Batch of 2 targets.
Target 1
Amino acid sequence: MVPGTAEGDGVRIHAGRLHSRLQDLSRIGSTPEGGVTRLALSIEDRQARKQVVAWALARGFECRRDLAGNLFVVRAGHDREALPVMTGSHLDTQRNGGNLDGVYGVVAGLEVLESLEDEGASTSSDLVLAIWNNEEGVRFAPVTMGSSLWAGKLRLADLATQIGSDGVSLETAIAEDEEEVSGLGAAAFASPFRAYLELHIEQGPVLEAANLPIGIVTGIQGVRQFLFKVSGEAAHAGTTPMVTRKDAFLGALELHSRLRALAIVDDPEVRFTVGRMSMNPGAPNTIPSEVAFTVDFRCPDATKLRERGAAMLNAADRLWAGCSMTVSNLIHSEPVSFADFIMESVRGAARAEGLPFLDLPSGATHDALNAASIGPTGMIFVPSRGGVSHNPKEWTDPEQLAWGCQVLANALRDLDYERGSDGNRSPTA
Amino acid sequence: MVPGTAEGDGVRIHAGRLHSRLQDLSRIGSTPEGGVTRLALSIEDRQARKQVVAWALARGFECRRDLAGNLFVVRAGHDREALPVMTGSHLDTQRNGGNLDGVYGVVAGLEVLESLEDEGASTSSDLVLAIWNNEEGVRFAPVTMGSSLWAGKLRLADLATQIGSDGVSLETAIAEDEEEVSGLGAAAFASPFRAYLELHIEQGPVLEAANLPIGIVTGIQGVRQFLFKVSGEAAHAGTTPMVTRKDAFLGALELHSRLRALAIVDDPEVRFTVGRMSMNPGAPNTIPSEVAFTVDFRCPDATKLRERGAAMLNAADRLWAGCSMTVSNLIHSEPVSFADFIMESVRGAARAEGLPFLDLPSGATHDALNAASIGPTGMIFVPSRGGVSHNPKEWTDPEQLAWGCQVLANALRDLDYERGSDGNRSPTA
């Protein structure tokens, strides 16, 4: 049985339409390697946004846009006073990224709205698909920019003059986009919701290894990102005796080794990555005077993240191979736990399809992190082959994509009805 | 007593003129930090070359130029059939380099020619000052390009279409220079000489630490430069468990540690430097798929250089933290020993001034390395404060600069007379 073929009492999604729309969007910004480059608010991203809006308007859905460039597709419920049920994701990609990261959640969300429309099914609440602007943070920093602005974690005034990687300012890019998708109604920041549920590929190897089609995401692990700068002394590689050197590279290695120990990288909950290192002056025959490197440290346990992160910051107190060191904090994001009633709703949605599932935390950051600061939030994962993402080789079996979409449809309908488990947060409960 | 003030029977150099010319040249390409940027055949370098030629022509010296852009200032001897005695260095610099590296040897060589002229002193051989093109290898690769072409180690046809760091080809740059210093006679490649003696700052800490003004350079240590590329797999820093990663950075660290062991960095003769490292894709939240780094390995002992270098090349045979590795050979330059009779001549020249001296190998590569492949060669070092070079802080006391120049003058005159110690290499001996 695949979604769209079953005889059930619920709304069935249309797998063919889901795949065809994914293919349509994969052609916008496609790369020779089979991936896609669709940086936030670029010509390609604006084209993809316009396409999704066109599909939505063709079905009679209302489309809105906020000042941060987030788009909202609304299928009206019969009680327009009720808090909406939301889903969402993003259309922007990494450079030469994959064809599923972000776009899958958008297309699947639209598919749920359209399937409801096809069958004339009504909901009590509005069902809203959010298309968050600039999740990847490649052209403009930071990551999850649109949803952070929407959730009030950042202020647009602080970011607007930022110059993107192509020399265009954020405010100009947002204005260009506004022209392109003109005529939409305005949407407010931080509007409350009954539930936010985001569907995404796992971008990790856990579901594939467990051979399970659905992941119940328990939360998003915390992230600390640091930039360490080690300062020594430039000197001639041929003339300077080894013992008199202040080699910033050796200082960086000694420090790196200590940081791994402080992070306790053997702890299976911990992720510790050095993804960028730069050396100055960077000549093969010159001892480096400065080496800068990033550390990305993640853990779902708030206490471990806080205590070990603090220990890393304190490493600046001493010399490393005779070199001084400074550290700056790039990102500090606390772990988030998702709402129990949403996880339970997703479990029920999977059970209804006979799909086995697994609870797991999200290793990556998503827009759901920001939604969780406003209201009850959850996520669904589908497997990623080889755990590969941010890469043209990103892949999920089409059938698994369809199952994920069907589970999203079931869960969103389930979340539409009043539930007792969330009395404090949902005014309609 | 300082040079230029003594009553001696030899020619005395003029310290004031030496310093004033160094100051004149330090203004061509000067940087805010007090250094100088005069990349090979750039507007600044061509201006400096033109200035030195103008000084030489004003004294009636003959100036010649070869196809590689090397310049030769000739003060004629009374026996024009005799092999010339040569000195030389370079006017080009590193980016924001110092005010002595190279230019000191050129200005001191000119000062010797002018002092002889001032006093009407005659020599039997022509005395030739070579101004080697592109010693630093910053704008065009490789280092010591001009003297390598002159010595026949490289062919101009293989380099001419090379595009420099500013987008201009080497052949265009050489043509631009030819226009600028037009009207000079042609010079042949690889013309034989009686002796080549180059004066240079040490660019290392040895003479300063020993508190000695003159270094008798015994040779130039050998250099091997490698580029190692470690290939793993890019993956998401937040989602990928530590144990399943193929992290090219960890592979590079494991490899680096092994390479240091193979080089035996505790051996006081050894220099081992990682001066450049690049990481791909270079995002803080992505495990690097490829890390490339250079190793600069030097040793005056040919056997150690060969055997340990070969062991490093063989390290490609295995995996490093699960990552594959390739290595390429950037530079392989055997150690060179300088001619005994030239070293002895320099020792005598220093003794005549009452200057104590020390024998030491050169850690850095110089144009003298290429001259040594053609004929008997030597070098003189003066101290470098703090051993600092390739840096605006490069500094030698003016008095020490003057002493170095006086020793060069004494030695060049000494080398002008027939000597028995070099019967095989010098036809006039």
Note: The mean pLDDT of chain B is 92.
Target 2
Amino acid sequence: MKEDLPLSRDAVSAYRDTALRLVSEAGDVVARRLAGSFSARKKPDKSFVTDVDLEVEQLIRDRISAVYPEHGVLGEEYGALRPESPFQWVIDPIDGTLSLRNRIPLFGTILALLYRNEPVVGVIMLPELGRTYHAARGAGAWRGSERIVIQDVPDESGLPDEVIGISDRHQFIVAGRTDVFDRLMLRHPRMRTYTDCFGHALAVDGSLGAMIDFDLNVWDAAATQVLIEEAGGRYVRLPPDAERPAKYNLVFGKPRVVQWLLEQLDGKE
Amino acid sequence: MKEDLPLSRDAVSAYRDTALRLVSEAGDVVARRLAGSFSARKKPDKSFVTDVDLEVEQLIRDRISAVYPEHGVLGEEYGALRPESPFQWVIDPIDGTLSLRNRIPLFGTILALLYRNEPVVGVIMLPELGRTYHAARGAGAWRGSERIVIQDVPDESGLPDEVIGISDRHQFIVAGRTDVFDRLMLRHPRMRTYTDCFGHALAVDGSLGAMIDFDLNVWDAAATQVLIEEAGGRYVRLPPDAERPAKYNLVFGKPRVVQWLLEQLDGKE
């Protein structure tokens, strides 16, 4: 494929199929490790990493390098490989490592492909729920073999019965934006801390009205962008904070719920 | 069995086996209904009820009346039957109906048996996770065929890495105790709104350090008491509010985490 041409839908679908095969292998690793024991330790940023994170990322990196030796790979644990390629696979081998460590079954593996910095394939695999969400540009968003089409709320009267996802307050402490977390908790009694890719996946299939998640990295955000947009939802990256320009502060989900969340962010009481 | 004797362990285990059979049947109903459509509507208290709640409760009531025609039954949706019996089965057919309505996979069925007002059997079944937690007095707490023994945190230094469950702020609004919710959110950055029996189950198997849940009914609380105590955890019912004397305000989980939560409740800053 010439790199100066846009990707064909068939090409993108083929990359999506590769991504699905890789996360399926990742799921086998996770299942095997969950059945036994694994060790967790803290990284310099105080977040946890486990043997499982490392094994899954190494597996996916190896497979991508074997299948697409010219593609770049960027993972949470092992950094960047071939960063000059227009194709970049981004990996969060275990998104929700604190949950994995505590055996809370709401963690997952995220894999996305960026072409010229635009996400074109996104996969979220939740091993303990037996669910895989996947999307490719132009080919729709799917949960397994079921097409996902987000239904917006008809009007604002539906908002109180929408559950809205939000990450741990800890995430907003790190981002220096506890004001956002605290204000939203007061304004919507059904805010729930469905953290990590579990919350993202529930927003993709409309179980959540929307989700707001701050201080993410590209490997946490890219898959969600493809999934939400292909499902017909709205994905908004807020202007990055000047001191943390690489971080993603996101609001995504049903358009009217996203709009309501955006209106709460200006701080007006 | 003579009603003036304490129950034997064998008798309690037999009741537990019956309970497991009934929630398994309930799981089949839920799976069938989830594969299709069901209707949800609001009850006078503004909470949701669905066809699934009603079908599951009717099924369990019918089965109990057939097997133990002298036992009482108290369910969330259909009220009390034979309330004079020393044996009372309490049912929450779908705990987490808002989640079920929104197809958030964190709802479940709760069934417990009280003998002279003391819970002796408790079962929580989470159909979308494929998990069933069960306990009988003197026979331990189990997740499926795996015995559960709660490991306490060794000391307070472990607290920051413990995830603590809490119900929606909505629940604390109803209970008139938003002060508790808001204070805990500020004091522990890993409070998560893992509502309903999903949070209870995670506290039982030690994935959560503890859970705090307010404004419950007996059918939400009784199974948890047996499960937590048989797993070696601590279960505390706070003194009921004078205006809502039948409601249960609970703190349960690993003893040191429960103790920490109790110390936060006095309102001292």
Note: The first strand of chain A starts at residue 40 and ends at 42.
